[in-house]
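User: Please predict structures.

Assistant: First:
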Amino acid sequence: MKQQESTPFDLGNGSQSLLSVHKVLKRFGEKTILDEVSFEVEKGQVFCLLGPSGSGKSTLLRCIDHLEPIHGGEIRLNGERLGYRERRGKLVAMNDREASKMRMHIGMVFQHFNLFPHLTALENVALAPRQVKKLNKSDAEARAQEVLATVGLAEFFSSFPSQLSGGQQQRVAIARAVVMEPSVVLFDEPTSALDPELVGEVLLAMKRLAESGMTMIIVSHEVGFARDVGDMVALMECGRIVESGPPHEVFGKGEGFARTREFVKRII
């Protein structure tokens, strides 16, 4: 994993990483939650974040989406600083309008589905394209149908959330994030609220999206998924990335990733 000191989004080969997190610092009061975290994600990559509860994984995703302010470092998407603007030589947080516009390029899938109970699956997914992108109803619903079919819900367009299983509801939530065609989709432990028998269907939907070339950052305890689908895997502890690399290295038998192997032993 590449670390940068000067220009955080310069890969040194004339290209740019899609997403660059550079020395990000986050505190809650006196407690440091993220301690100068740095990593890069290239377009089309699946980046999996593993680590014990309380290591800062979910907070990191919330900082990327500017749901939480950061206290140092910077985050860039396509070379553009996220969450902050430079004005008169100082950094100031984006206002609500600017932040909302920024979030159009970032999809977020949470642990809990947060679907509108009075709307069908199709209506839940088509809502943002209509309200935010100002698509007409026909175009928004056509796009929503396409994405719902991709996550295996072609037969459930007219179903309300109460008529769907937890796994189906989470797939609707995934479709809702994907339908906006974001540059990157963030997944915050998307299977943690599901019964074990429903986890597989959500992971399969995510695998299909990965195979389509979608850029994804996934916080999860699903080690098998990270091993099989991830392009890069990172282990977080105490607010720092302590090990990172391709899955075959991180989960291999070499000497370089002892912490990851110990973490995997504790959760399987």
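Second:
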Amino acid sequence: MKAIDILTTAIGNSFRSRLRTTLTVIAIFIGAFTLTITNGLGTGINQYIDTQLASIGAADIVTVTKPVAATTTTTGPKPYTANGPTEVSGGGAPGSTVLALTDSDITAIGKVAGVTAVEPQVAIRTDYIEYGTNGKFQLSAVGEGAGVRIQLAAGSQFTSGTTSLEIILPTSYIDTLGFSSNKDAVGKTVTIGITNAAGEQTTLDATLVGVQDATLFGANPSFNPALSTALYDAQKVGQPATATSTYSSATAHIDPNATKSQVADVKAALVDAGYAGTTVADRIGTFQTVIDGIILVLNAFAIIALLAAGFGIINTLLMSVQERTREIGLMKAMGMSGGRIFALFSTEAVFIGFLGSAIGAGIAMLVGGVISRVLARGLLKDLAGLQILSFTPSSIATVLLLVMGIAFVAAVLPASRAARQSPIDSLRYE
């Protein structure tokens, strides 16, 4: 009997007892459906997180701070030292304290092996933003480094290398400032007010190049490097010439194609130089680990359902072997080997597993697509671009192969029993 004959015979035998096969397929369907849905949930959330990473930093950026050195003082403030290092808050995790970076630190960071460029993160305290006659509104923005891609509802990313002053505003600013729509706002000129060191308020005009969608990490107005520099320079007007510039952190650029080990080497070199480096992956890694852990637990429940279905396959095949004892004896008497009989029954089990998993995965994709669209228009409408359930060919193939593998393992016992039967005893079976 050829392989194709074994396959066609196994498929035909699967439907000899339709009720029994149907019940087994339903059990497999439940497990495959659950496993596909939970995998789709994990894929959808992780894909959304990946698309959001660019909004908080590019992959080739390391945020550098100078940690406070450990001392023997365990409580209370440290003694004051004239011309000593200055501590600032907010440079690391919330509530943390780091040493302020100076221009000499920026130079030192730039010399660390693996760092291609470095720029200080300056603190800009703007007063307001204004457009037309709609009034002035508070503005708290962040500067965006090279390589950062903001999720946009309209407009475009910052122009690379430009000296033009550009700003991107979140959608929450559009109606407030008096624009009729996101598209209407793009290309318009807004006025930003800032107070300098002498207490005088000055203004700068910037072009609104894009409107930012709400993201998982919030949405804030963003300045391009040229606007950040212009505002910082305006803010410093009137500052004594002897004043020293200090920064809470710096942005170090590394090779965009650097491997994980190379990034780790750069961070180790920064530590050796007295600094600490944090990548986007470091900041988001814990969050992704929690999500993956939740999905793993959900997948475990689906696997339990599939294992229960596996016992259904064992029962189905054992009954089939018993019912077809004389048939097995006849096949052996006609020269069919035990290996081919084993292949026949195991193929029957694998086909039942494939049938149940294919139906389960297919319906899960249909149901998941509907749920994603409903949630995107309702509960999750503020998270643009989030498809809560996302299915990839690789994940569907994994589910099918896993279920078929469980079905094959479940078939080993009954198929082995069929293969070991004596043709004489089988033909005598009543």
